[in-house]
Amino acid sequence: MAARLLMGTLLLGVTTMAAANFGTPPNAGEIMREQRAIREQAESSTGKYSRFKPEAMVRLTKAQEKVFRLLDGKQSVEHLDMHQKVELFNALEEVKAVLNDNEQDRLICRREHRVGTTIKETRCATVAQRKELEEGSKAFMGPRICGEGFVPGTDCGGNMREANTNPVYEGRRR
């Protein structure tokens, strides 16, 4: 248990450094060594990560493959462009989520354009926060179809509407 917490702390430190972009840039070789050690223990039938279900192992392997691909031949994370740094951060967060069996707290970052400009910025939120935002957006938009009590010839609010007589739209009625 203590070793699991230590590994989680190490991963947290690496991912925090990769995202924060301050101080000494993370050493790509160090990240690769950590990921290889985790993989060895996960693939061993008696390793400390042998408890994982096959789905978790697939997630872990895919995330680590992404880390290995991004860091191949690199000495430092600083040799990656911003898009690659975000991709690396997300892959390391995926590994951490699998190891700690805590998907809801996994941080996901995206490079997005700010509204009204071509400038991209990095925005991060946990899986739980993203789900909450999505549900809030759906609630704000309201129901998309009429529920019980719908009367043909009315809109969802019950207001009378003339039938659409335009033949172009005839086949598009719902």
Could you characterize what this model shows?
This protein has helices at 2-20, 28-43, 54-71, 82-100, 127-141, and strands at residues 107-113, 120-126. By secondary structure, it is mainly alpha-helical. It has one domain. It has a two-stranded antiparallel sheet. Helix 1 (2-20) runs antiparallel to helix 4 (82-100), helix 2 (28-43) runs antiparallel to helix 3 and helix 3 (54-71) runs antiparallel to helix 4.
Features:
8% strand; 174 residues; 2 strands; mainly alpha; 5 helices; disordered N terminus; two-stranded antiparallel sheet
SSE layout:
Blueprint lengths: L1 H19 L7 H16 L10 H18 L10 H19 L6 E7 L6 E7 H15 L33
Antiparallel strand pairs: 1-2
Helix pairs in contact: 1-4, 2-3, 3-4
Any idea how many domains?
Answer: 1
List SSEs in N-to-C order: HHHHEEH
Radius of gyration: 24 Å
The description of the largest β-sheet is: 2 strands, antiparallel
Please count the beta strands (DSSP E, at least 2 residues each): 2
Biggest sheet, strands in spatial order? 1-2
Question: TL;DR?
Answer:
By secondary structure, the protein is mainly alpha-helical. Helices cover 50% and strands 8% of the residues. It has one domain (2-140).
